[in-house]
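In response to the reviewer comment on reproducibility (Comment 2.3), we provide here a single inverse folding case reported in full, input and output, so that an independent group could reproduce the run without further information from us. The structure tokens appear first.
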């Protein structure tokens, strides 16, 4: 497997849009209901770039198969050293180590940017994602019951945290 992790570029937006829209329509990995438009995805990408927040893609054999990003956890100034991350993969790329490579890249970028803590907000039923995060040093720090509603059901959320070690 020849996997490349790199910064996303505008040319990647159609694939990123396909990946996120699949997650919106078919999973509880994201609590949006409606698919995004290209204009919305482009506005998100431009804001991330302008805010200095990373968007990284996993590319294999010239094809983008997943992406990850992080952004400020909450908008108050006191949270400026805390970020919430997201990773999305296309269906065919699960279980191949792609998510770990994306997360590793985000952790490294966070470290280089002076981030103190990374937070994952995960659907509590997604035990695979919770175990995945534990493998990379994240610790469960909170559980919120019935905080979201999607697919005609109430959803619980687990907060996971990684304190970034300073070199």
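Designed residues, in position order:
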């Amino acid at each position: 497997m020849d996997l490349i992790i790199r910064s996303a570029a505008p040319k990647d937006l159609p694939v990123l849009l396909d990946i996120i829209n699949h997650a919106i329509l078919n999973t509880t990995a994201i609590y949006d209901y409606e698919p995004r438009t290209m204009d919305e995805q482009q506005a998100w990408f431009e804001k991330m770039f302008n805010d200095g927040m990373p968007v990284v893609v996993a590319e294999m054999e010239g094809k983008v198969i997943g992406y990850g990003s992080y952004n400020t956890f909450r908008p108050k100034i006191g949270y400026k050293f805390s970020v919430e991350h997201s990773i999305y993969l296309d269906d065919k790329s699960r279980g191949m180590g792609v998510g770990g490579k994306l997360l590793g890249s985000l952790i490294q970028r966070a470290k280089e940017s002076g981030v103190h803590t990374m937070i994952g907000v995960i659907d509590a039923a997604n035990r695979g994602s919770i175990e995945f995060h534990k493998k990379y040093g994240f610790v469960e720090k909170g559980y919120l019951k019935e905080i979201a509603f999607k697919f005609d059901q109430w959803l619980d959320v687990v907060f996971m945290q990684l304190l970034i070690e300073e070199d």
